[in-house]
Amino acid sequence: MAAKEVLLYPNPILKELCTQITHWDDGVRLLLQDLVDTMVAAGHSVGVAAPQIGDTRRAAVVDVSHSKLGQKQENHGLLQMVNPKIIEREGQTVVREGCMSVPDYTGNVTRAERIVVQFQDQDQQLQVLKADGFEAIAIQHEFDHLDGYLFLDRISSLKSDLFRRK
Amino acid sequence: MSHFALTIIGRDRPGIVSEVTGILYQLGCNIADSSCSILGGQFSMILIISHPQLDDQKSLNAAFAPLEQHGLSVFLRTLKPGGEEHPDLQGEICMISVYGADKPGIVYRVARELGQKQINITDLNTKLIGGKDTPVYVMMIEAILNPGVEVEDVEEWMAGLKDEMKVDISVRSITPMEL
After folding, report:
1. Each residue of A93-107: pLDDT tens digit?
2. Among A90, A128, B13, B179, who pairs with A114 as Cys (CB 3.0-4.6 Å)?
3. In the 8-state DSSP scheme, what is residue B145?
């Protein structure tokens, strides 16, 4: 259990398709704990996905409750998600996203406004919940990592959607 | 390693970037940071360059002389140590859009307001749009707000100017969602 180093692009692990977790052992619990520890250690982060710490299993954590934007809305607090899937999407919104794995740039990304997500929690229980606002965006961003997508894969134009951090 | 700020400007035509970067390549210079664009009919290049050995501006200036003969103005400045390093700017980022019938002082009045409040402007673009008879001035300012300053505060500061200058001003947060 420890905060891990966050991998930066072009590390190839960030572009891998992560694999379903079928065998539950202590390793899964350890992975979730590492993800939570890494997210907390990186003070400004509201989520981390397994490939960002070099693990290609389908697991991610999100917690928007400590962030300024998250506190403006109802949220689910800490979510530890294994084998997650978005089963419904509604609405569209464009947001400017930054990612710990692509530190020098931010980008305008189109995301669903509201989602219904299904996953197994840290106790292997199946959960289905609705998320909207900042929480929904954070979840979509982290799940993208599990499919090897970065926000760079979601922008439409280098000229109008990609911004170098000042 | 010495770093230099290189500014080049001249009437736009194909081949300017190629000529400039060709010289930099021959010299063995690195382009550490750059921004190039057309302003009016002029192509303008601003580059932060470095060289592993050369720390003497004179030899660089000599290499750029052919550019002057081709109608480009070249200005080179040696940076003080550390001048090439990017500052770590923290705080909410906001975009201020200002537009309205063209009149003197739009840029100055908005910038003065922000300067007096110690707000750091990190990007500024202006454009004259609209027809010849009804020119419209548009300005986009990106600024970093100091701790404790909210977007609503900037809106409030701009409200007076809006009436006085008869321009439209909107302020919005563009702080990225850190994920």
Report:
1. 999 999 999 988 899
2. A90
3. P
User: Which pLDDT belongs to residue A137?
Assistant: 96
Q: Which two tokens stand for residue B25?
A: 């390549």
Which parts of chain B sit beneath pLDDT 50? none
Answer whether A47 touches B (CB < 8 Å): yes
Q: How confident is the model at residue A44 (pLDDT cuts 50, 70, 90)?
A: low
CA quadruple A41, A42, A45, A49: dihedral, nearest 10: -80
Calpha distance B97→B138 (Å, rounded) = 7
- Whether residues A46 and B179 touch (CB distance < 8 A) is answered with yes
Q: Which residue has the higher pLDDT, A83 or A73?
A: A83
Any B CB within 8 A of A69 CB: yes
Q: Return the pLDDT at A70.
A: 87
By C-alpha distance, the chain A residue nearest B88 is: A166
d(C-alpha A41, C-alpha B73), whole Å? 50
Between A44, A142, A166, which is nearest B178 by CB? Answer: A44
